[in-house]
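Subject: for your reference before the review

Hello V.,

The reviewers asked for a structural picture of the protein, and I figured it would be easier to keep everything in one thread rather than splitting it across files. Below is the amino acid sequence we used in the manuscript, unchanged from the supplementary table.
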Amino acid sequence: MTRSMDRKPIASGTRPLRRAGRGGKLRLPPDQLQEHSLAGTWLDAMSHHLGDEAMEWGLEAAQSGRVRSMELGSGFVSASVSEEGESGRRLTLSVPMLDDDSWLKVVEAMAAEAVYTARFMEGEFPPNLLQLFLSCNVDLVPGRDEVVGIRTNAPSGSARRRAASVAWLMAERLVVEPLAILQVRGKTVEEVVYRIRQRRSIRLSEGSVAHPPLRLQGELEPPAPLSESIDHFWRSSSLDQLPPRSPAQHIPHALLRRLGSAPMDGKFPLAGLLATIYDQIGDTSRRLLEGERD
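And here is what came back from the structure prediction:
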């Protein structure tokens, strides 16, 4: 079940690679985290990498407030985790960052619609972002075939369960701040927005236009010298003698295509509804003009 994701404004400028979190006691119920589209996907992946037993211990530790000073950045989530009767030990959960080819495919797909830049700039998580990544054969959340590492100075036997407690707190962070997953996978929101805009600019510079340019040069015969056409200069030529020309082809609904999908939900896509209205207006206008000529 997909739940709405809270809006969080994006600060201007470039964010640092590390950001501290409050850590502490897990506040949201585990059922809500597991049902959340992004947090639930994260927890499923961590269960695969760390094991169900470790996740059960980690949930208890997170609920009892034994996870402190959580930080996240490019390729990692880190926190201090304590077991009963001891002080906290630092643990870092290493998450693989996406390579340049993966980011290129994802940015190319997002550049096709303006909604992604608009949502990111408002600090919102696009509702179909997970599906977009999957359509590019890229996992936004670490997949099962990726390697999730653990670094800690705690006893080796407790590493997995401590990592699981950090995973639960990270899941809660993804409910409150879902765009944080982008940074964990290697790019800040600002970097992603910059790349999308850059790609859209490149598309425009490649000559993506709504209507083809008018090319008359070379298609018309050179005019006769004025001295040879004085006697018949003002005489009109028969339109039947003009060479036939096919109408210029252009992309239908080009402006709507440039705007991308509308962010509003409904039974019928808004762009499709507008395209239908525009077609009906165009047909009615042509019939009126033809009627006036008749």
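For the response letter, the relevant points are probably these. The chain has a mean pLDDT of 80. Residues 39 and 174 are 6 Å apart (CA to CA).

Happy to draft the paragraph if you're swamped.

O.
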